[in-house]
Design a protein that fits this description.
Number of helices: 15
GO molecular function: homoserine dehydrogenase activity; NADP binding
InterPro entries: ACT-like_dom_sf, ACT_dom, Asp/hSer_DH_NAD-bd, HDH, HDH_cat, HDH_CS, NAD(P)-bd_dom_sf
Family: Belongs to the homoserine dehydrogenase family.
CATH superfamily of the largest domain: NAD(P)-binding Rossmann-like Domain
Pathway: Amino-acid biosynthesis; L-methionine biosynthesis via de novo pathway; L-homoserine from L-aspartate: step 3/3; Amino-acid biosynthesis; L-threonine biosynthesis; L-threonine from L-aspartate: step 3/5
Number of strands: 18
CATH topology of the largest domain: Rossmann fold
Bound molecules: L-homoserine
Helix content: 25-40%
Keywords: Amino-acid biosynthesis, Methionine biosynthesis, NADP, Oxidoreductase, Threonine biosynthesis
Radius of gyration: 25 Å
Shape: elongated
Length: 447
C-alpha cells in the first residue's frame, strides 16, 4: 500500500524531531501502522534553513521532501492526507488548521494554546468534515497522558488530576531549591537549555501549564475546553524564603496544574503549590513532567517523563500519526471522540471561580514581636472557621536601634474555601502588629 502522506507545517525543534524519529524507526512504524508514513511536503518561513536542517539530519536531495514557504499550498495539496501543525500560537496556526480541516485533511498538532483557546471551534469543524484532530504532543510532551485519560482510564469517574506540566518552571524551582540560585539565574539556565517557550512569560506565569490543564480537564470531565475560566498564577512572584520555609515544614513547592471534580463544579487552576516532600510528585526534578490522575476505580496513577524536547515530543506526534493512519478509513462514529466523551454528551458543569476552590493554605506573616500578636491572629482564623494544622515561628530579628523586633510566622491551615481564607487575611493585615502583606500559597496533600 502507498504510504500515507503528511504535510508538515513548521520545521523547528518538534518538526525536525518528528522527521528524524519517523525516518529512523520507519520499518517498525510501518509494521505498527499497517502502511508507511511519509512526510511528503514541508512548509516553513525560511526554506533555506529547513533545507540545511534536512541536510544535517542526513537526508540526501533525492529523498528529500519538497520544502516551500507557501503554507496554503501544503494545506490545499490534494495528495496530502494529514497536516501536522508544528507552528504554535493561535494566529496563523488556527487559520491553517481550520483550512486543512475544511479540505478534509486530518490534523496532528502539538499546539496546546490553540486547542485550549479555540478547541471547541476546531473540534466542531473536524466533526463537520469527518476528520480527526490528534493532539497527544500538546500535553506533557512525550508522556502519553491524552491516550491514558481518553482510553486507558475510560472505566473511571475521574476525581482529580494534578500535574507538573511545565518543564521550564520545574527546572527553575529545582535549581532555586537545590542550588539556592535566584529566579533570574535559573530562568536563564532554562532558556539556554531550550526548555522555555519562545516567550518565557507563558512558562513562568503559568499560562503554558494552564493550556495543558484546560485540555486535560475537558477530557477528564467531559466539558468543553474553557481556558478563559482557568485560574492562572505563575512562579515569578515566588520568594526563595517560602521555598526554604516550606522545606522546613516538610513540603516542596511545585507549579501544579490541578483540575478536580468538586461539589458545585470543576476546579481548574495553576499555581505554585506546597506538596508533602515524600510524595512522588514532590521528587520530580529538573525539566521532567509528571501527572497524577485519580480515578474512582483505579485509585491514583502516575505518569512521568520528558515534557519537552525534539524527540520526546516527536514520540507523541508520531504516535498520533500512527493512530490517524490506522483509523482514517474508519467510520467517524467509531473513532475515539476528541474529548473522550461523545460530542453531544458534553456537560455544562461550571468551572468554579478561585474564590470557591477548597484547599489547605500556607500563610507567611511578618509581625512585630510583641505580646498578643499570635493570639490576635489565631482568634481571627478561629472566627472565620479556619483550623490551623501547623505553625512555625522564627526567631525575632532586631529591626532598629531601639531593640524593636520583627519575626516571620508561618501557618499551615486545614482545608477551607478560598474566600474564607481571603477574608481572614484581610482582617489579619488590618492588625497594627502585622507589618506587611500576608503571603498566601495553596497546598495539596494528594492523598
Ligand atoms: N515550555 C514548555 C515547558 C515546553 O517548559 O514545559 C512544552 O510545552
Amino acid at each position: 500500500m502507498e504510504p500515507i502522506k503528511v504535510g508538515l507545517l513548521g520545521f523547528g525543534t518538534v518538526g525536525s524531531g518528528t522527521y528524524t524519529v519517523l525516518r529512523r524507526n520507519q520499518e517498525e512504524i510501518k509494521r505498527r501502522a499497517g502502511r508507511g508514513i511519509e512526510i511528503a511536503r514541508i512548509a516553513v518561513r525560511n526554506p533555506a534553513k529547513a533545507a540545511k536542517a534536512l541536510n544535517d539530519i542526513g537526508v540526501a536531495d533525492a529523498g528529500s521532501p519538497a520544502v516551500t514557504d507557501d503554507f496554503n499550498a501544503v494545506v490545499d495539496d490534494p495528495s496530502i492526507d494529514i497536516v501536522a501543525e508544528m507552528i504554535g500560537g493561535t494566529g496563523i496556526a488556527r487559520e491553517l488548521v481550520l483550512r486543512a480541516i475544511v479540505n478534509r485533511k486530518h490534523v496532528v498538532t502539538a499546539n496546546k494554546a490553540l486547542l485550549a483557546v479555540h478547541g471547541t471551534e476546531i473540534f466542531e469543524a473536524a466533526h463537520a468534515n469527518g476528520v480527526m484532530v490528534a493532539f497527544e504532543a500538546a500535553v506533557a510532551g512525550g508522556i502519553p497522558i491524552i491516550k491514558a485519560l481518553r482510553e486507558g482510564l475510560t472505566a473511571n469517574r475521574i476525581e482529580y488530576i494534578a500535574g507538573i506540566i511545565n518543564g521550564t518552571t520545574n527546572y527553575i524551582l529545582s535549581e532555586m531549591r537545590d542550588r539556592g540560585v535566584d529566579f533570574a539565574t535559573a530562568l536563564k539556565g532554562a532558556q539556554e537549555l531550550g526548555y522555555a517557550e519562545a516567550d518565557p512569560t507563558f512558562d513562568i506565569e503559568g499560562v503554558d501549564a494552564a493550556h495543558k490543564a484546560t485540555i486535560m480537564s475537558a477530557i477528564a470531565f467531559g466539558v468543553p475546553v474553557q481556558f478563559d475560566k482557568a485560574y492562572v498564577e505563575g512562579i515569578s512572584q515566588l520568594a526563595a524564603i517560602d521555598i526554604r520555609y516550606a522545606e522546613e515544614l516538610g513540603y516542596r513547592i511545585k507549579l501544579l496544574g490541578i483540575t478536580r471534580r468538586a461539589g458545585k463544579g470543576i476546579e481548574l487552576r495553576v499555581h505554585p503549590t506546597l506538596i508533602p516532600a515524600k510524595r512522588l510528585l514532590a521528587n520530580v526534578e529538573g525539566p521532567m513532567n509528571a501527572v497524577v490522575v485519580h480515578g474512582d476505580a483505579v485509585g491514583a496513577t502516575l505518569y512521568y517523563g520528558k515534557g519537552a524536547g525534539a524527540e520526546p515530543t516527536a514520540s507523541a506526534v508520531v504516535a498520533d500519526l500512527v493512530d490517524v493512519t490506522r483509523l482514517h478509513t474508519a467510520d467517524p462514529e467509531h473513532r475515539v471522540p476528541h474529548l473522550a466523551f461523545q460530542r453531544d454528551r458534553l456537560s455544562d458543569t461550571p468551572i468554579l471561580p478561585i474564590d470557591e476552590v477548597t484547599s489547605g493554605y500556607y500563610l507567611r506573616l511578618r509581625v512585630a514581636d510583641v505580646t498578643g500578636v499570635l493570639a490576635d491572629i489565631t482568634r481571627i482564623l478561629a472566627n472565620t472557621g479556619i483550623s490551623i494544622d501547623a505553625l512555625l515561628q522564627k526567631e525575632s530579628e532586631q529591626v532598629d536601634d531601639h531593640g524593636k523586633g520583627e519575626t516571620d510566622i508561618i501557618l499551615i491551615t486545614h482545608e477551607t474555601v478560598e474566600k474564607n481564607v481571603n477574608a481572614a487575611i484581610a482582617d489579619i493585615e488590618a492588625l497594627r502588629t502585622v507589618v506587611s502583606k500576608v503571603t498566601k500559597l495553596r497546598m495539596e496533600t494528594l492523598n
